[in-house]
Amino acid sequence: MSLRSKKVVIKRPESPNLDKMDFISRLHDSLLLQILSLLPESDATRTRILSNRWKNLWSLLPILHFVMPFCWTFEEVNRFHDRVDQTLALRGCMPIKRFYLYCSKYCDYDRVRDCIRNVVKCKVQDLEIRFPDDNFRFKFCWDLFKTCGSLVRLTLRGEFVLSVPDDVDVLFPCLKTVNLVSIKYSCDECFKNLISGCPVLEELNVERQIIGEVDNMESCMVISPSLKKLGLSFALSGRGDFRVVIDAPRLEHLSVVDVMSTRYSLLTKPLSLTEAHLKVRNGVFEAVAPLVTCISNVKVLMLNDLALVTFSYIYDFDMPVFPNLTDISIGLDVFRGWSMLPTFFDKMPNLEHITFLDGFLPFPHAQHTFTMGWNRPVEVPPCLRFKMKKIIIVNRETITPEELKLIKYLLKHANHLEILTINAHKIDPKRREQVLKFYRASKSCRIEFV
């Protein structure tokens, strides 16, 4: 039997055709831009190094984000501004959805002004500009924006000087959100003129965080018939006497953080107010009293310890009823905090969630010894018996024996409690076991230590 040898032919694989493999790059610009829009901004920008096809594609995205690094030379400054200008030139008049520009020291402010002017021409909707603490202050002139009918959100941070004349009727016809953070004002009327020039304004946030300087703002006049959300933060301002006047009848959300001696007045009571956060440290009860007296209809409420004391000062335990309140976060005062709890519970018949922001004791236990004087009320508050579902205790340290009494009382009478969360940095294992063994009126109640 003869064996015939067969010739084996080995075919070499064809070299890959890169044009066929890179089918993504052959897609239309509109499809590629849609893909890039799904990526984080930083990742979308990195695609420019893939190939010449991708080099300038990211610049056509509707969201542009430019952060200027610290520059030591004018060449570095010009290089950054050139990149911004080239990007805008490639876009032409394509609409911009959001434009963020963060300038560091020694930036060219004339080129920044030209940049803003070009961005406005592109019908930008969301504009955020941030300047550093520099000797030069960029004057935010309204004439740059008088043709900007598309702007919906505006954020200004840092060394801006807001300048808005009195004779402006409508400045931003579509602007709904304004954020002003640590800026300066050319005069006290500029802020009022800006707000009055926004007929559809819904959200306003003002932060004064200037240390040892004056921002030329002696009063804050918030007068807006359309405003729904107001945030005021006067945390680090060097000026002591300050006045806030609020006339916003449609206000739904109010947040105030204040360590100054600010005096508040409300020209119109906001009947639609559903959520309020009050964190004050000025020690002048009369100054914040108008804020306290306008929040009885809210559903969500946050009060720090001094705001809580303001309640007792104003009402002397004759508090109004909070019929709609379901969620409250409070900080307890060292002198009247625990004694006010029964009154609070009685006046909040529908309360479901309560958070103790600093635990039951206001200071570290090792440094101070307090007797909070917890006396059980004669009758269990209705909200505790029928409504309470969630209790959170944000403790600074471990649980003291005195705090155990209050925890035991809450567990014993909260018939519908679903969860008790104790957030403590240090938890004594023995006291943990003690809490877990407490009687629970709600059979479905869970206790969590985090």
Short description:
This protein has 450 residues and is α/β, with parallel strands linked by helices.
Question: Please, could you describe this protein's structure?
Answer:
It is built from 13 helices and 21 strands. Strands 1-2-3-5-7-9-11-13-15-16-17-18-19-20-21 form a 15-stranded parallel β-sheet. By secondary structure, the chain is of the alpha/beta class.
Task: Summarize this structure as a short list of keywords or feature phrases.
450 residues; alpha/beta; 15-stranded parallel beta sheet; 21 strands
Strand order of the largest sheet: 1-2-3-5-7-9-11-13-15-16-17-18-19-20-21
Structural class by secondary-structure content? alpha/beta
The N- to C-terminal Cα distance equals 85 Å
Silhouette? globular
Largest sheet: 15 strands, parallel
Fraction in beta strands: 15-25%
The count of helical stretches stands at: 13
What integer value in Å does the Rg equal?
Answer: 30 Å
**What is the averaged pLDDT score?**
81
Spans of at least 5 consecutive residues with low confidence: none
Q: How many strands in all? A: 21
Helix content: 25-40%
Compile the SSE list and pairings.
Layout: H1 18-21, H2 29-37, H3 41-46, H4 52-55, E1 63-67, H5 74-91, E2 98-102, H6 109-121, E3 126-130, E4 138-141, E5 153-157, E6 160-163, E7 177-181, E8 184-185, H7 189-196, E9 203-208, E10 219-223, E11 229-234, E12 241-247, E13 253-258, E14 261-266, E15 275-280, H8 285-292, E16 300-303, H9 305-315, E17 327-330, H10 337-346, E18 353-356, H11 382-386, E19 390-394, H12 401-413, E20 419-423, H13 429-436, E21 446-449
Parallel strand pairs: 1-2, 2-3, 3-5, 4-6, 5-7, 6-8, 7-9, 9-11, 10-12, 11-13, 12-14, 13-15, 15-16, 16-17, 17-18, 18-19, 19-20, 20-21
Helix pairs in contact: 5-6, 8-9
